[in-house]
């Protein structure tokens, strides 16, 4: 029987291989992660062992070629992100940061030695990576970063603080962006390097099944071989962000779809005024409108994936997807929550957990304001960020 949420039969636009990858990821998650994710969220933990499980599943750096990575299409990677975020944004975030920020920064800008050293272990989930761009005083505006790397003989000495770093407290290697006399450069900082420490951020109301940390660098001495040789300006970290933002375009559809599914299921069984609440026109309006929005978001994601595969995807097009799909997903998660009444505030149901997580997704990887300004820049030719 056709899934009622697939009103437009969007899976017919996918290849058999793409559908198989999506189904494999969804099946693994429903058996191994979905049953536990609400309790991880409640406890504010993400078990480290999950990394190796996700490595075996093949989703870590899955869109990269070589070095133990699966080398799938961009769309297959997007579909995996969709299924991961349908479970919890924190799980998708783990995979985004590992594959699209940590691994991608090494894959794209690293030396052959750095790739050989880190990529196979990161792909297998035997090592965990993080990506430190944001600082306490520079979030949307990373060009102002204060973290400095200064040459000292053949070495570099790094000082500074990065904050809100996903996977920071778990990471075996951090990609850290720092200002040098020649401009912004990237460095690989292994855990255990003297002067490098991490502190996890507690009391989060969002992304609770995810580790978010501060990275502190106090006279961290690194050899020249720790610098990413091909990263020569702020353009390098911003290029990495394009990869992660692309995954979020799909991930947001997953959170929205899962919220809508919960509302649809609930509305068919919850009886009020002697009828299932699904029989009320106002409930059907909510369900129908959300179905249209989820379908729109998915079609947009598919279009961007095809552009990415054709090699023509532009940053402002990713901004359209990130802005639209995350704004749409959070509205859907909140609307779905209302269909569940009081039960909607319980962790037994997913919509409010998704909505809370999406508060972070709305902010990270460029806030909605930043993406609107990026679209505005493309439209007018005028950069209005500053
Ligand atoms: P601007 O002068 O515009 O740009 C500097 C250089 O970078 C180039 N560029 C890009 N290149 C590739 N992709 C993009 N998206 C790019 N955006 C800009 C630009 O062409 C220029 O190149 P060049 O060679 O001419 O020097 O820089 P700006 O300082 O005016 O800033 C532009 C702005 C505001 C768009 C940028 O700073 C920005 O995107 N800010 C948002 C910061 C952000 O998104 N941080 C995310 C941190 S990582 C994270 O949140 C992970 S969350 C966990 C998870 O993903 O799950
Ligand atoms: P600010 O930049 O201070 O923005 C505050 C408000 O001002 C926002 O509404 C913003 O839209 C608005 N604003 C800012 N500039 C403008 C402007 N020019 N015009 C109009 N409005 C503007 N960072 C990493 O480097 N690595 C990570 O792994 C990572 N993981 C994260 C995980 C979580 C759970 C969260 C919440 C954040 C994470 N971040 C990470 C940080 C994230 O990228 C930043 O929070 C984000 O870039 C916004 O920066 P900020 O929080 O400093 O907000």
TrEMBL record:
Keyword annotations: FAD, Flavoprotein, Oxidoreductase, Transit peptide
Report the cofactors.
FAD
**Which Pfam family, an example, fits this chain?**
Acyl-CoA_dh_1
Q: Where is the Acyl-CoA dehydrogenase/oxidase C-terminal domain?
A: 237-379
What residue stretches are annotated with the Acyl-CoA dehydrogenase/oxidase N-terminal domain? 15-126
Using the record for this protein, list the coiled-coil segments as residue ranges, or answer none.
none
Q: Which SUPFAM superfamilies match?
A: Acyl-CoA dehydrogenase C-terminal domain-like, Acyl-CoA dehydrogenase NM domain-like
Acyl-CoA oxidase/dehydrogenase middle domain span: 130-220
Family as reported in the entry's similarity comment:
Belongs to the acyl-CoA dehydrogenase family.
Please give the PANTHER family that the UniProt record associates with this protein: GLUTARYL-COA DEHYDROGENASE, MITOCHONDRIAL (PTHR42807:SF1)
Indicate what this protein is called per its UniProt record: Glutaryl-CoA dehydrogenase
């Amino acid at each position: 029987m056709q899934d009622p949420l697939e009103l437009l039969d969007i899976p017919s636009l996918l290849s058999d291989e793409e559908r198989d990858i999506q189904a494999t990821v969804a099946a693994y998650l429903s058996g191994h992660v979905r049953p536990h994710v609400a309790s991880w969220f409640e406890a504010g933990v993400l078990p480290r062992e999950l990394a190796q499980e996700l490595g075996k599943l093949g989703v870590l750096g899955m869109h990269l070629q070589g070095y133990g990575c699966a080398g799938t299409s961009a769309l297959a990677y997007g579909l995996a992100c969709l299924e991961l975020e349908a479970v919890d944004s924190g799980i998708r975030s783990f995979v985004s940061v590992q594959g699209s920020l940590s691994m991608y920064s090494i894959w794209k800008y690293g030396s052959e030695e750095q790739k050989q050293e880190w990529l196979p272990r990161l792909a297998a989930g035997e090592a965990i990576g993080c990506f430190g761009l944001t600082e306490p005083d520079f979030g949307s505006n990373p060009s102002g970063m204060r973290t400095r790397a200064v040459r000292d003989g053949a070495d570099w000495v790094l000082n500074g603080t990065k904050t809100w770093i996903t996977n920071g407290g778990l990471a075996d290697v951090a990609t850290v962006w720092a200002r040098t006399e020649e401009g912004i450069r990237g460095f690989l900082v292994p855990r255990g390097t003297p002067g490098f420490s991490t502190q996890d951020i507690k009391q989060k109301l969002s992304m609770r099944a995810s580790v978010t940390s501060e990275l502190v660098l106090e006279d961290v001495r690194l050899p020249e071989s720790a610098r990413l040789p091909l990263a020569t300006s702020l353009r390098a970290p911003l290029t990495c962000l394009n990869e992660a933002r692309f995954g979020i375009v799909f991930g947001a559809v997953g959170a929205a779809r899962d919220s809508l599914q919960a509302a649809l299921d609930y509305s068919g069984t919850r009886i009020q005024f002697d009828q299932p609440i699904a029989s009320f026109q106002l409930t059907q309006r909510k369900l129908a409108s959300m179905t249209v929005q989820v379908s729109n978001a998915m079609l947009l994601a598919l279009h961007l994936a095809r552009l990415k595969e054709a090699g023509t995807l532009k940053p402002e097009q990713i901004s359209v997807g990130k802005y639209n799909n995350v704004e749409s997903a959070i509205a859907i998660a909140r609307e779905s929550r209302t269909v569940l009444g009081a039960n909607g505030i319980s962790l037994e149901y997913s919509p409010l957990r998704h909505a809370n997580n999406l508060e972070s997704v709305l902010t990270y990887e460029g806030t909605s304001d930043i993406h609107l300004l990026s679209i505005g820049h493309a439209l007018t030719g005028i950069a209005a960020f500053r």
